[in-house]
C-alpha cells in the first residue's frame, strides 16, 4: 500500500466526525421500520432482474429512449466519452449565451468534472443541493453518495457560509439551512440553464425520474429556460412500470424514508411561465459503461441504484469514510465504479480497504456482490502485476504443508522468550502496530494433529472427518480435542487425515485464485477417504471454503475434473455447532440437567453469518448446553480480523476491534464465543490487552462437559 | 385508505392532513387558514392559487377581494415571494402518504415548490394504494411532468440533522375533500 494512503487512513481515524454521525443515526433500526411489510428479498430480486437485463441491452435501450424522448420534443445526445459529454454541454452554453448554471445533485457531472470544465469558459455553475453546495464552497469532493458533506462539522460549514455571505453566523443547523435557502434561491432565478442528473431513465416513455428531498431539482428543471440532464447509460430501464420497484427501494435503503419528498417524472419540454417553450436536453453518457456491461463479472455493478446503503453498513467506510474510501463514488461500490468510470489506478489502491465481511452484499438494493467484485479487481491486479514478493512467498509457504507446519512448530519454540500466559505481549518493534490493542496468540506447544493421536476414541459405525484448519490445529488444539469428545458422545468416531492443509481462503482473499485452487486440490481427496458421513469444520472461513468456495474456484480456474468431488465434500460439510444443533435435535446429544447457568455473548463471524448463513444453530446449541445468551450490539459486525487484513491495515483493524470490544463489554456476559479461530485470536487478544474479565472461547470448549 | 394515507403523510415531516365532507367546508377552512396566516398584499405575505378544478366551485373574485393578498395567477416572481401556495393534486398514495401532481403546467410547480406553506387540495376519493396503482392512472404520454410530493422540503445534509424547508415549503397542509370529484376520473 502506498505511503499517502496510510497517512490518509491515519488522519481519517483521528477525525471521527462522519463516523460519529453515522453511528448516532441508528440506521439498521430506522431502515427496518421503513421496510415494514415489504419483502425486501423479492423487491431487490426484481430490481436486479430489471437492471441486469437492461445492462445487457444498453445500446438498444439508449436508442429506444432517444427515439421516444425526441418524439416528445427532448433533444437527446449520446456521449461516448466524458469529453464528448463535456463538450456538448459547453457548446450548448455557448450557443445559448449561458453564463450562469444551477445544478441539482448529479454524480455523473462530478464524474466528468463538469464544473471545473465550464469554469474555464467563464461559466459559473452553482450546486443547489445543500450538501453539494457545501462541498463546492469547501472545494472538496463528496464523501458520501447520498449525503455528500457529511464529513464537515456544522462549525466548519458555518465558517464556509460566513465567508460566502459575508455576515457573521452562529452554528445552529436550522439557521444555517435557512441561510443557504436564501443564498441559493436567487441563483435559481438568475440562471440561464439548469443541470440535473437522473435516478432512472425510462426507454419506453423517454422520461427521466429525479428524486430529491430538498426540492431543488424541481426548481432547476423549472426556473431556467434550458434544462440539461446528464444521465449515465446504466440509469436506463425498459418500461415505465420498472420505476416502481426502484422508487420503493431507493429512499427506504438510502435514508429510511418511504419516498423522497419529491420524485419527478419529466417526459417532455413544458411551457415556461412567459409562454415560451423550455428546451430540454438529455445527454446519455457511456464513459466505459458499455464496456463494463460486456464484462461478465462487472456487468453486475451497473445494477446499482446509488442508495449508499452499502456505505452505511460498511465497518471500514464508517471508520475512514469517504475521501479515503473513494471520492465521487464512495465505499466498496465506489471502488468498483471508479475503476471503470475514472481510473483503475486509484481503485487498485482503495480496493485494499475492503475486509470482505459481506455486510454490504446483504443490504444492497440491487443484489450486487460488491466484495466479490472487489476481489475480482484484486485478482486482476495480481494477475497483471503479481503480488508483492513477501506476500507471495508467504502464501506459497502456507500452501506447502510440510514447510508451513514445520515453521509453526519452530515458532512454538522460538516464541518462548516473548510468551507469557499464552500471549505474546511484547513484540519486536516492527510488529508493534499489531500488538498495540491486542495481545498476539502464541503457537501451541503441541498441535492438534499430534494431540489427536493420543485421544482414545470408542469404535463407532458412524464416522466424521475433522477438518481442523491451520489456526485451530496450531493455536487452539484444545478446542479440537473438545470437538472429538463431543462427537464421540453422540456415537460418532472422528478421523483426522494428516494430509489436510490450509483451505486456501488466504490465497482466495488476496486474489491468487490459482493458489486457492491448488489448496482445494490438495484437500479434497484426503477428506473423502474412509467415506465419512460428516465432514466437520470448526472455523467459519474454512467452512465457507469447503461448503462453497472450492467448487467455485475449481470451476473458475477450469479444473473441472475435481468438481464432483468438491460437491461431495460440500454436501457432507457441517460447521461444528451446526452439527451439534442437529445432533441435539435428533436426541443423540442430551444436555446434562441442573448445570450452573453461565452468560455468554455470541460474535457472528462474517463467513459464518453471511457466506454460509449459520447463526441460529450455534445459538441454539449453546443455549441447549446451558448458556444464557446476552446479545451484543452489532453482533454480526466484523471484529477486524479479516485474515491478513489485520496485518495489511492494522490501524483500521484495531479500531474495528476496539468497537467490538466495547459492544462485548456492554453485555456484562462472562464469555464471548465465536466459531472462528481468527475471530477468537482477535477477541481474546483484545480482551487480554484491555484487562477484561470476559473470556473469549470456542463453542466446543464451552460445551465439552455439558452433555450426558 | 384515508387513515393510512393520513398516518403516513403526517409521519413524513411537517405535514398536517385535514378532512372535510364538503367542498364548502373545505373552502371555509382555507379562508380561515389564510386569515390565520395573515395573508396580505405584501412581499413574503401573499398567497398564490394555481389553476385547479376546485376554483370553478366558488366565486374567485369575491374571495380575492376578501384577501387582497390572494392571487389566482402564478408567475415566477409572484411565486418567489409567496407565503402560501395552493394547488389541487390528482392522486393520493396510501402506502407512502404521497400525492401525485400533474405538474405539466408550470403554475403547479411554482406554487407548490416556492411558497413557504403548500396547501394541497386532494379529493378523498382519489386516494389509491401505491405507485404501481398510480401508474395505471397517470402516464407520461398524457402528463409530461409528474411529481410525487411526500411531506415538506427537507434536508439532512448538515451532520445528518433533519432541517425542514431548505428550498421548498417548510409546511404541507393537505386538505382532503370528500365530495370533490375530478372530471369523470374513476378512482
Ligand atoms: S451497491 Fe447496492 S447498496 Fe450500494 S449504492 Fe448501489 S444499490 Fe445501493
How many DSSP-defined strands of chain B?
12
Nearest-angstrom radius of gyration of chain B?
16 Å
Distance between the termini of chain A: 53 Å
Structural class by secondary-structure content of chain B: alpha/beta
Number of helices of chain A: 36
Give the strand tally of chain A. Answer: 21
Percent of residues in β-strands of chain B: 25-35%
Name the overall outline of chain B. globular
Oligomeric grouping of the chains: heterodimer
Would you tell me the structural class of the helices and strands of chain A? alpha/beta
- Cα-atom radius of gyration of chain A: 28 Å
* Cα separation of the termini of chain B: 12 Å
Structure description:
The complex is a heterodimer of chains A (708) and B (187). Chain A has 708 residues and is of the alpha/beta class. Helix content of chain A is 51%, strand content 12%. In chain A, the strands form five sheets. In chain A, strands 1-10-7-4-2-3 form a six-stranded parallel β-sheet, with helices on both faces. Chain A has a four-stranded mixed β-sheet with strand order 8-5-6-9, with helices on both faces. In chain A, a hairpin with a 4-residue loop joins strand 5 and strand 6 (207-212). In chain A, helix 3 (27-34) runs antiparallel to helix 13. The longest helix of chain A has 18 residues, at 173-190. The two termini of chain A are 53 Å apart. In chain A, 55% of the residues are buried. The model of chain A is unreliable at 426-432 (pLDDT under 50). With 187 residues, chain B is α/β, with parallel strands linked by helices. Chain B has helices spanning 2-11, 23-36, 60-66, 76-80, 106-114, 131-135; strands at residues 15-20, 46-49, 70-71, 82-88, 91-93, 98-102, 117-123, 127-128, 145-149, 154-155, 163-164, 171-177. In chain B, the strands form three sheets. In chain B, strands 1-12-7-4-2-3 form a six-stranded parallel β-sheet, sandwiched between helices. Chain B has a four-stranded mixed β-sheet with strand order 8-5-6-9. In chain B, a hairpin with a 4-residue loop joins strand 5 (91-93) and strand 6. The interface between A and B is large, with 65 and 52 residues. Strand 9 of chain A pairs antiparallel with strand 9 (145-149) of chain B. Iron/sulfur cluster binds next to helix 15 of chain A. Iron/sulfur cluster (SF4) binds next to helix 15 of chain A.
